[in-house]
C-alpha cells in the first residue's frame, strides 16, 4: 500500500562539458516504492522510458533523486515520472516541459578550397558527420565532429552536402561549394 505522494517533480537544464541536458529532481515522502521510471515525450502521445532508478526505501525524511537525459531532443521535451510501488501499482507525476534550442551550425568558408570548418556545433551531441556529392557518393565520414576541419584539397570541384547527425537522430544538411 502506498502513502500519498507529497513529492515534487521538476525539470532542469544543465550545462556540462558544453552539453545541454535535461534532468529531474524528485523528492518526497513515499512508502512501499519500488522504483521510478523517467519518461520523455515530444509528440504529445508516445512516452518513452529513458531510464529507471531504484527507490532508496521508506523514509520519513526527504529523499532526492536525480537523472540526466544526455541526449535530449531538439525543441520541446516533456518529462514525467512513473512511480512504481512494490505491489505493482503506480502513479504518474504531472508532465513538465523543457525547450532545447535548435542551434544552427556555421559551415565556413563556403565556397571552400582547402579546409572546411564547422562552428556552433555541440561536438558531444554529434553521432556522425558526412560529406557527399549530390549523387550520394561519400567523400568524408567521421563518427565525431572534426575539430581540425575537413580537408577537401583532393575533392573534385562541385556542389556537396555536409550532413551533421546527432545521437538523438536529428540531422541537418548544408550545401557546400568546393572550388580550388
What is the structural class?
A: mainly beta
Assembly form of the protein: single chain
- Biggest β-sheet description: 5 strands, antiparallel
Mean pLDDT: 79
Using the coordinates above, name the CATH class of the largest domain.
Mainly Beta
The SSE order reads: EEEEEEEEEEEEEEE
CATH architecture of the largest domain: Sandwich
Q: Enumerate how many helices there are, as a single number.
A: 0
Please tell me what the overall shape is: elongated
At the third CATH level, what is the topology name of the largest domain?
A: Immunoglobulin-like
Question: What are the segments in which pLDDT stays under 50 over at least 5 consecutive residues?
Answer: 1-27
What's the structural domain tally? 2
Topology:
Layout: E1 8-16, E2 19-28, E3 33-41, E4 48-54, E5 63-69, E6 75-85, E7 90-92, E8 96-100, E9 106-108, E10 115-119, E11 126-133, E12 138-142, E13 150-151, E14 158-166, E15 171-178
Antiparallel strand pairs: 1-2, 2-5, 3-4, 3-6, 6-7, 6-8, 9-10, 10-13, 11-12, 11-14, 14-15
Can you give me a brief rundown of this structure?
By secondary structure, the chain is an all-beta fold. It contains no helices and 15 strands. The radius of gyration is 22 Å and the shape is elongated.
Q: How would you characterize the overall build of this protein?
A:
This protein has two domains: 93 residues, Immunoglobulins (Immunoglobulin-like), CATH 2.60.40.10; 73 residues, Immunoglobulin-like. Strand 9 and strand 10 form a beta hairpin. The N terminus is likely disordered. The chain has no helices and 15 strands. The strands form four sheets. Strands 3, 4, 6, 7 and 8 form a five-stranded antiparallel beta sheet that branches. Strands 12-11-14-15 form a four-stranded antiparallel beta sheet, with no helix packed on it. It is mainly beta and 180 residues long.
